[in-house]
Amino acid sequence: MFIDYSKMSKFKNLEIRTFKTSGYPSYVNHWKEYRFKSLIIAEVMKEYSNVWWLDANIRVEKGNLTELLREEIGDFVEKRGIDNTSSMFSFVYTGHSNFPVLFPDLLTYFPTNSIPLLKSEKHGSQLGANAIFFVKTEFTIEILKWWVLCSLDQTCMNPPGAQVSCHFDKDRNNKFAHCFRFDQSVLNLLLLNCFQDHNKYFFKLGFLFSRTS
């Protein structure tokens, strides 16, 4: 994809960086395995205490994003308490649980607390990794560490036979869809193992974002 950087110079606070893969295993260059996401976030978090990740096809629809996010975090802490509040937040509901898009081989790296939880629409739904907000805390660094280690392992992030095209049953929670969401499946498993409830890291601000493709 060609990017005309000259047209982007009008954005005052924009800095464009090239993700250099020379220091990583060669398979990091297999872009459709999505290993790059956790690695880029980890690199940026060395410099910044708050990090947004938005996929290239995500568009922000509202101008007051920071203000709305601050209000949502305040409500979260007030309702759940600081110890029950994540420092990593997803905004996009996928419409299915974690189970349909989870290759069993991943569980040899990160055993699940509960297969029924992975199938639960109420507490085990998979959330999108296409729009995420990170606050640099000890918890975030711990989760990010395991996400990065999985990205650097050849079969953790890419179990044998893994592919992104899904074949969902009418039941999008209890039946395996023979697909894998790579970085998204791994991150969701790590967070669900910690919190036992996706609602503890899900912000209902999905209306702030739309997909361009």
TrEMBL record:
Top-level lineage group: Eukaryota
Database matches in InterPro entries: DUF1647 (IPR012444)
A matching Pfam family: DUF1647
Protein name: Nucleotide-diphospho-sugar transferase domain-containing protein
